[in-house]
Write a structure and sequence with these properties.
The complex is a heterodimer of chains A (113) and B (115). With 113 residues, chain A is mainly β. Chain A has no helices and eleven strands. The chains are: A mainly beta (113), B mainly beta (115).
């Protein structure tokens, strides 16, 4: 079953707007939640990551909000730019004995100029 | 410095054939991961190496899939008797060491098409 659920599947935002992507998980053993950005024909690249001991992490225009009790986390892209158009994946890891990442299904973001 | 590299970038093969996909991790990275990404999906874990040994191969779909990392650097993913359902992008990632604190750096992937 899908360990990390992601929505929406696709998102269209005007330049300068805020893009919001949401993820939810069930496994309480997860303790690391990265977001990856992927451009066509490229591998995923780490954008920003958070641990469950903080509720928010901000790096430039990118912010992760984390709600441990609800087992949800989200990515906010402020002042969205056409260059942000890509597919975004949330992920989680930390289950006992495993180091692999469990990815969401991805959100295809299009920022319209 | 150089990132993770994967060869070939594209591979077309016929059903039933054997293929090898190569991954060169970032120099000095001890942990290496293989993932498979189907069209429109997120990457799915296949196997993880810490050094030369496969620490976790629970994601390999069946015994047609096998991976090695004999010297703790380059890794090869081997697929026997390929099937059309094996068509996907095979991604390799490496990290400085194992553990959830370590960032996984991905290569560009090998696009495998089984006809």
């Amino acid at each position: 079953q899908q360990q990390v659920k992601q929505s929406p599947q696709s998102l269209i935002v005007q330049k300068g707007g805020i893009s919001i992507i949401n993820c939810a998980y069930e496994n309480t053993a997860f303790d690391y939640f990265p977001w990856y950005q992927q451009f066509p024909g490229k591998g995923p690249a780490l954008l920003i990551a958070i641990r469950p001991d903080v509720s928010e992490k901000k790096e430039g225009r990118f912010t992760i909000s984390f709600n441990k009790s609800a087992k949800q986390f989200s990515l906010h892209i402020m002042d969205s730019q056409p260059g942000d158009s890509a597919t975004y994946f949330c992920a989680a890891s930390g289950t006992t004995g495993a180091n692999n990442l469990f990815f969401g299904t991805g959100t295809r973001l299009t920022v319209i100029p | 410095g150089a990132g993770v590299s994967q060869t070939p970038s594209n591979k077309v093969t016929e059903k039933g054939k054997y293929v090898e996909l190569r991954c060169d991790p970032i120099s000095g990275h001890t942990a290496l991961y293989w993932y498979r990404q189907s069209l429109g999906q997120g990457p799915e874990f296949l196997i993880y190496f810490q050094g030369t040994g496969a620490a976790d191969d629970s994601g390999l779909p069946n015994d047609r899939f096998f991976a090695v990392r004999p010297e703790g650097s380059v890794s090869t993913l081997k697929i026997q008797r390929t099937e059309r359902g094996d068509s996907a992008v095979y991604l390799c990632a490496s990290s400085l060491s194992s553990g959830t604190k370590e960032t996984q750096y991905f290569g560009p992937g090998t696009r495998l098409l089984v006809l």
